[in-house]
Amino acid sequence: MTYTDLDKTESYAKLKVLAGEFAGKETFQKLDAERVAEYSAPMACGLTYNYAAKKLNGAVIDALEALAREIDAVGKYKLILDGEIMNTGENRKVLHHLARGRLGKEVFFENKNIGDFYKKELERFSTFASAVREGKINPGAGKKFTTAVQIGIGGSDLGPRALYIALENWARKEGKAKITAKFISNVDPDDAAAVLSSIDLTTSLFVLVSKSGTTQETLANELFVKDKLKKAGLDPAKHIVAVTSETSPLAHNPAYLDSFYIDDFIGGRYSASSAVGGVILSLAFGPETFAGILAGSHEADKTALEPSIRKNPALLDALTGVWERNFLNYPYTAILPYSQALSRFPAHLQQLDMESNGKCVNRFGNRLSYATGPVIFGEPGTNGQHSFYQLLHQGTDITPVQFIGFKESQLNDDVNVDGSNSQTKLKANLAAQIVAFAKGKQDSNPNKNFEGGRPSSIIYGKRLTPETLGALLAHYENKVMFQGFIWNLNSFDQEGVQLGKILTKKVLAGGGDLDGALDAYSKILGVK
Amino acid sequence: MTYTDLDKTESYAKLKVLAGEFAGKETFQKLDAERVAEYSAPMACGLTYNYAAKKLNGAVIDALEALAREIDAVGKYKLILDGEIMNTGENRKVLHHLARGRLGKEVFFENKNIGDFYKKELERFSTFASAVREGKINPGAGKKFTTAVQIGIGGSDLGPRALYIALENWARKEGKAKITAKFISNVDPDDAAAVLSSIDLTTSLFVLVSKSGTTQETLANELFVKDKLKKAGLDPAKHIVAVTSETSPLAHNPAYLDSFYIDDFIGGRYSASSAVGGVILSLAFGPETFAGILAGSHEADKTALEPSIRKNPALLDALTGVWERNFLNYPYTAILPYSQALSRFPAHLQQLDMESNGKCVNRFGNRLSYATGPVIFGEPGTNGQHSFYQLLHQGTDITPVQFIGFKESQLNDDVNVDGSNSQTKLKANLAAQIVAFAKGKQDSNPNKNFEGGRPSSIIYGKRLTPETLGALLAHYENKVMFQGFIWNLNSFDQEGVQLGKILTKKVLAGGGDLDGALDAYSKILGVK
């Protein structure tokens, strides 16, 4: 396998020429029913990716496909699936796909079959979650656990929390919601204190999540929780389970009710498919619900193997993002789900994307001379329409947009006003926005003029379920992975967070060797 | 008063020259205790604005001050305070400052004294809120109201919600938290359904907020709520109060328990200081708490009158933002509060900033040829450190950052681990991040190398209270206002959201005159 910087590929020069010639405005004026039908690709689990309102034409798509072939994007994905060391910075395999099912070779590490290991842990925490939900595992005194509290930060928080919120209503509707989940993440003591004051400790089970077992925030919050449990006369060992790696200080530790294992081959932001997401989601919604998420992700992982980009939405989305970032020069992307259930999904994608591809060196450590990962932000529609959409419509810069929408609500509890129900209004707003961004509207009052030419794509489906949610999750993971291949960087490490950690330790150690500014900031903040 | 496009000012050319000459790297290498002490400005309510880690030097600050003088930024602010028509697009006064106290002339409209009107409404809803909190106004059957649910979207949601979350813990600690607030905003029926299933309708009071009384989402959610109230055998007229303008269909309407009034001179995103924020916050935390927020904002409004930018943090922050946007060419800004209580404050600021200054025409309707409002995003630290900070530290583009931090937590419920409590760890992380961004760190492994040179400022104070929160809120409002003056645009209208509304109505009307693409998107989403 060869690895080439984007600007050294043959396709790069061709795309530069195309970007110079490209009459984007025409594309948007040509946007009609035929184009909407044509620029559409099936995704896993009945989802569809529609890119008719993107600044693309046949020639650009063909050139993007040539780029994908030239760098062998799908071949690199297959190396991941086969267990090659694709996290080169940390000398690790990248195996989050394997947590949802095998698509490549059997993967071994130090004679251990990793697929079997993931499967075994999945079975173990599924059994555990069922026993808790049925009351077989309980806090004693004739009670059942009613609340599960995840203690974790970053990938141990954002992904699992986004998925929990995404399925909370669905689970209530389907009769799967037995245990309420809460989340403690921030080292700000007000976070833990507020969560703990909102729950009944006697019936609460804590899920302590730290791969290394050394995460500062998580350990501080663990002590916080243990302290409260003890003060309430409860035994922490009966109220906390750990999710950690087998080599961490938290592993095989009688201080916990049980422990479930992960390994170094699944990075934090990719860990929702492992025990990191699995324990809390299985407790809350049942193991069969978590299995549904994994099944949806696995189906999306299969789709990402398709060599033709018109049939591979993750790869097409990735290439379109590169087209927008490196050839049309848009520095950010908004992700706008028309689904209240996905209210925290953009925050997860912000981590997934920005932490993976916010890098300025290639996989060999050479400084890149082109832009990589964009800033990702978003809030659910229609809320955003009454907020930052003003800038998206009439700001001086163009922000590419990706919408997500569903035909049906999750709860199917709706009201009819002025001849339509709320779900229909939600969808009508979404359709209207795509066209408003693309086509704009001429107005003699310049303040009411919409220039249009603002590209968007949409992922849509019937209803947000465990399966469609899993497919969505994997779509974005695979999109980010493919973009990492195209930018020739390592999407799977995060050295950029290390310096802060080191300096924090310095401050807390409080030695006299502090940098003058560090010392000064510590003082004005009252650290010492 | 004269109004000049930024690129037509004398200062513009000087700043362009300075930007070309400016050795930003040197600034950061020079960052030491002395500079931290010098680049500091007092704010209202004991807050401090520190800009030592910004890419600024004395010459740039002087040039920015000259720009502020040249366009008479403070003079324009005074016109706002005096009730001039400064929302030129909609031919309206801009009076959110007046809602917290008078700093200019008395303002009249159609012989009505607007300051008196705001004061009267404040008194009315304060009295109402006290009566509800004391149980004098109650749902009958010997019960008290325990829950207040705001129904509103955009400015009727984001600001009030952010402030509520910001003071929830403070109020619990101070014994002010009597009524729990919830919020319904999205037209997605899953939003309202989920909130309603989490509360006891018999003891819930709904606050219906729509200035025009015609907001599609809010009216749909009102009907949704009324329907549920009726099905529960409750009289909606005893469970809903309205916050609206006196000319709206919701005004003076016996369908509501009471109504509180706002007017067209306070835009949605500036309305947290009016009855839009006041009713729900006074119900939840008491009128004296809301008065504290207003007092803090009023003090910040006074500070914004200061002509010297080194003593006027809102103006300095505004100018620094313009320096970064138009001269250093950074397209976005991250706002990162090290306070879990401010978890939704960035979402409010995203609306405030992007809806106000995401415009491409000047106040006279001429197309601008320079960049205006940036994309604003943010999440609380330390959470963000484990997420998108990777890109902030090592991404190919530079993202200016504004931190917010406090010496003390709100609940003062903390735990000691490894020789420090969590609040100290939070602050140590914050100090470390500023220095890490500014100075970076050379490493022979390029993947671990931090280039530094990434600018940040910090607003810090003792503790997040109603007063400091009010000062923060007004700081950002005034910053955005000053930037609007500098960019010579109208920050107070939002024509960019209109086209979507018009197209949505077209879709819902379902006529045969739909644009082909609009029709096609409506069909694939199952609108019809």
Description:
- The structure is a homodimer of 528-residue chains.
- Chain A folds into 3 domains: 255 residues, Rossmann fold; 194 residues, Glucose-6-phosphate isomerase like protein, domain 1 (Rossmann fold, 3-Layer(aba) Sandwich); 31 residues, no CATH class.
- The first copy, chain A, is an alpha/beta fold and 528 residues long.
- Chain A has 18 helices and 15 strands.
- In chain A, strand 5, helix 7 and strand 6 form a beta-alpha-beta unit.
- Helices cover 44% and strands 12% of the residues of chain A.
- In chain A, strands 1-2-15-12-10-11 form a 6-stranded mixed beta sheet, sandwiched between helices. Chain A has a 5-stranded parallel beta sheet with strand order 6-5-7-8-9, with helices on both faces.
- The radius of gyration of chain A is 24 Å and the shape is globular.
- The N and C termini of chain A lie far apart (53 Å).
- The interface between A and B is large, with 158 and 158 residues.
Quaternary assembly:
homodimer
Outline the low-pLDDT stretches of chain A: none
Q: Can you say what the CATH homologous superfamily of the largest domain in chain A is?
A: Glucose-6-phosphate isomerase like protein, domain 1
Rg for CA atoms of chain A: 24 Å
Biggest chain contact: A-B, 158 and 158 residues
Cα separation of the termini of chain A: 53 Å
Work out the count of structural domains of chain A.
3
CATH class of the largest domain in chain A: Alpha Beta
Question: Helical proportion of chain A?
Answer: 40-55%
Strand content of chain A: 5-15%
* Overall mean confidence score, pLDDT of chain A: 96
Q: What overall form of chain A do the CA principal axes indicate?
A: globular
CATH architecture call of the largest domain in chain A: 3-Layer(aba) Sandwich
Strands side by side in the biggest sheet of chain A: 1-2-15-12-10-11
The number of E-state strands of chain A comes to 15
Tell me about the largest β-sheet of chain A. Answer: 6 strands, mixed
